[in-house]
Design goal:
Low-confidence stretches of chain B: none
CATH superfamily of the largest domain in chain A: ANL, N-terminal domain
Shape of chain A: globular
Mean pLDDT of chain B: 83
Distance between the termini of chain B: 12 Å
Number of domains of chain A: 3
CATH class of the largest domain in chain A: Alpha Beta
Low-confidence stretches of chain A: 1-23, 597-607
Oligomer: heterodimer
Largest sheet of chain B: none
Mean pLDDT of chain A: 89
Number of strands of chain A: 28
Helix content of chain B: 55-70%
């Protein structure tokens, strides 16, 4: 078994303060492979791994100080995954049973993920706790994921196993729960591992932290292979000289599909930094790129912002980012200033702004939908704000002095995919008209696992996926202008408004359908969460306590501060069916607080 | 762990938190980081970096899930420090 797995049984502090010792390899996998590069085009993940395992490239894991902690070449990954698959087979699970794995940035997660595929099981990644005081809410979240996926097996390393055990207490379907170390002690079942079929489920991707209604995106081997092919051939134009670096969490689609699976299906090496370590010391990511001459590295705009904020002049002289040819940006609305500020800060460190590669995608389409043209940097367009609001139409700014909005070009769909813009009645709109963004193509999910209702909401007839985003097409290129009001994006994370409202409604003082959550933009482009509650409490002390408690709960669950506004009953606007309208609630709040400049239309589309 | 160590940590924390927090709060060991100080995720990351650099330790992310007050954070740091 790999040395990395035995290491997990070391006490917690050692697992974190691990000092390189003689048992670990001290050299990362090389960039140059001994194997001819095949750019995706495999039938299944396992087919791709069997090929990659013939070479010498693979995954490398670095600690917070930039020291190499462990190395997992694709060849070793293959052997370890097959070995673990035979131990999983001993559990006698039905083909396609779900396996829940808390996805720390570790070799163990990747080994388990592939072990599941070898054993014909469906893995899915669960998040790690990230917020202060989030213990209770995190356990609830895990419980929701275990229930929704009807998982048969659940795994976490030593740092997280206590949370998992707590969450699993009342879950009936679980047959086995433990650490990778414990799994590696189960007996090996001598069975021939069967190849997977393209039409079977490859993995689930959960898109929401909701405790009650998590949604697990179902991705088949075929959809995955199709999306990966588009990403590496058309989006990134990967070559044998490429190498990736990533801090993106393995439990996000961009981290998993884009920076674990895409490198593997092209047999290139990757250097990983844990998300937590990046968040605290973002420069470590850039140092890794500089030192290992990485060429492909993705981030949310928020990650770039962190780098820009934290870099000191003295850091810059040690960096040489001239090797970085594909700086992929995605996963949230891209604001041009974020990219400009980053380029300005790091140009003296060799960063070439032509490397910026805006793209658009979502887990429901495996990962990617559109890519801008590689090597041409980011392009944007100045749109007349008034015409956009009044006529829902994107017209280039003609005259000086008029107010405008700048939007980033996200490029064209990958081959085999079509993007269309529709109005509220799902009627297709002409180019330049603002509406909901729909996607069709082979990368689209089969649905949400065990959730026909949500599936029906997202997948329209003829398998058009409603992305939930608002945008327009201009000369065939996609521009995203906002999200519908059911999702609040803050510090790079998607928070469903419904999740915040549910949390509020669990309080005894708050009735159901009397809480409304939404985001408002601040002048600097950041977003603040606002929670409006219809409140019957009269005593100022009680009102204060409720506000404080709600703020604390939201913080513990989502790691963000929020503004709580208590309003009299019947203040929140409702639709004819009695449903709260978040869009109208937001408009009301803006009026009450005299926040102007909130471009209603660009973020509207509430249904 | 010595008391000295813990007191030193509390002192440093109160000092750092005082400059991070928005509100004019008198910070003590019992102060709740979330409800009283509004420490958002960016401030939290800054604080952790400073703590790690000041005490030459690494704070595991899982341990923060059980931290709500200044005292709990100080105890955690003190525990990690004495184990290293």
């Amino acid at each position: 078994m790999s040395s990395t797995i035995t290491k997990l049984n070391a006490p917690l502090t050692q697992a974190f303060d691990f000092q390189p010792s003689s048992e670990t390899q001290s050299i990362p996998t090389p960039t140059k492979n001994t194997l001819a590069q095949q750019l995706a085009g495999f039938d299944t993940l396992i087919g791709a791994l069997e090929y990659a395992a013939q070479g010498i490239t693979g995954y490398n894991f670095y600690d917070a100080r930039g020291n190499l902690r462990s190395v997992l070449p694709y060849s070793l990954l293959r052997d370890n995954a097959r070995n673990l698959a035979q131990r999983l087979s001993g559990l006698e699970l039905e083909h396609g049973s779900r396996v829940a794995i808390i996805a720390d940035t570790s070799p163990e997660f990747i080994e388990l993920f592939f072990a599941c595929r070898y054993a014909g099981l469906v893995p899915f990644a669960m998040p790690v706790p990230v917020n202060l005081g989030s213990h209770g809410i995190y356990v609830q979240q895990l419980k929701g994921l275990l229930e929704s996926s009807q998982a048969s097996v659940a795994l976490a390393n030593l740092d997280y196993i206590n949370f998992l055990e707590e969450a699993a207490e009342k879950i009936t379907g679980l047959k086995w729960i433990g650490t990778p170390g414990q799994l590696s002690k189960l007996p090996i079942k001598k069975v021939a591992l069967q190849p997977n079929q393209p039409n079977e489920i490859a993995y689930l991707q959960f898109t929401s932290g909701s405790t009650r209604m998590p949604r697990g995106v179902v991705i088949t081997e075929h959809a995955l292979m199709c999306n990966l092919k588009g990403i590496v051939r058309n989006g990134l134009e990967i070559t044998p000289e490429d190498r990736s670096a990533s801090w993106l969490p393995f439990y996000h689609d961009m981290g998993l599909v884009g920076l674990v699976l895409a490198p593997m299906v092209t047999q290139i090496s990757v250097d990983y930094l844990a998300t937590r370590d990046f968040a605290i010391r973002p420069l470590q990511w850039l140092k890794l790129i500089s030192r290992n001459r990485c060429t492909v590295a993705f981030s949310q705009p928020f990650g770039l912002k962190l780098c820009t904020m934290r870099a000191r002049e003295s850091d810059l002289k040690d960096l040489d980012l001239s090797c970085w040819r594909a700086a992929g940006i995605g996963a949230e609305m891209i604001r041009p200033d974020t990219l400009r500020n980053f380029a300005e800060k790091f140009s003296s460190a060799g960063f070439n702004e032509k490397a910026f590669l805006p793209c658009y995608g979502l887990a429901e389409s495996t990962l990617a939908v559109t890519f801008s043209k590689i090597g041409s940097g980011f392009n944007s367009i100045q749109i007349d704000s008034k015409i956009l609001v009044d006529k829902r139409m994107a017209v280039r700014l003609q005259a000086e002095g008029r107010k405008s909005n700048e939007f980033v070009n996200c490029g064209k769909p990958l081959p085999g995919h079509i993007v269309k813009i529709v109005d509220e009645e799902d009627r297709p709109l002409e180019e330049r008209m603002l509406g909901s963004v729909l996607v069709q193509g082979a990368s689209i999910m089969s649905g949400y696992f065990n959730n026909p209702e949500e599936t029906k909401n997202a997948l329209k007839p003829e398998s058009w996926l409603d992305t939930g985003d608002i945008g327009f097409l201009y000369e065939g290129d996609l521009y995203i202008t906002g999200r519908r009001t059911d999702v609040i994006i803050i510090n790079g994370r998607n928070i469903r408004a419904q999740d915040i409202e549910e949390l509020a409604e669990q309080q005894p003082e708050v009735r159901s359908r009397e809480a409304s959550a939404f985001g408002v933009s601040n002048e600097d482009g950041s977003t603040t969460v606002v929670l409006v509650i219809e409140c019957r409490l009269a005593s100022p002390a009680e009102r204060h306590t409720l506000s404080k408690r709600l703020q604390q709960l939201v913080y513990m669950a989502f790691g963000v501060n929020c503004i709580v506004e208590l309003v009299p009953p019947h203040t929140l606007p409702r639709t004819s069916s009695g449903k709260l309208s978040r869009f109208a609630a937001r408009q009301g709040y803006i009026q009450r607080t005299n926040l102007d400049d909130q471009l209603a239309v660009v973020e509207s589309g509430d249904r | 762990m010595t008391n000295n160590n813990y007191d030193e940590i509390i002192e440093l924390l109160c000092d750092r938190l005082g400059s991070l927090a928005n509100a004019d709060v008198n910070i003590t060991a019992e102060t709740n980081l979330i409800s009283e100080l509004s420490i958002d995720s960016i401030k939290l990351l800054n604080l952790i970096m400073e703590i790690e650099d000041a005490f030459d330790i690494s704070i595991p992310i899982n341990a923060l899930a059980d931290v709500q007050t200044v005292h709990e954070l100080a105890s955690l740091i003190s525990k990690i420090k004495s184990a290293s």
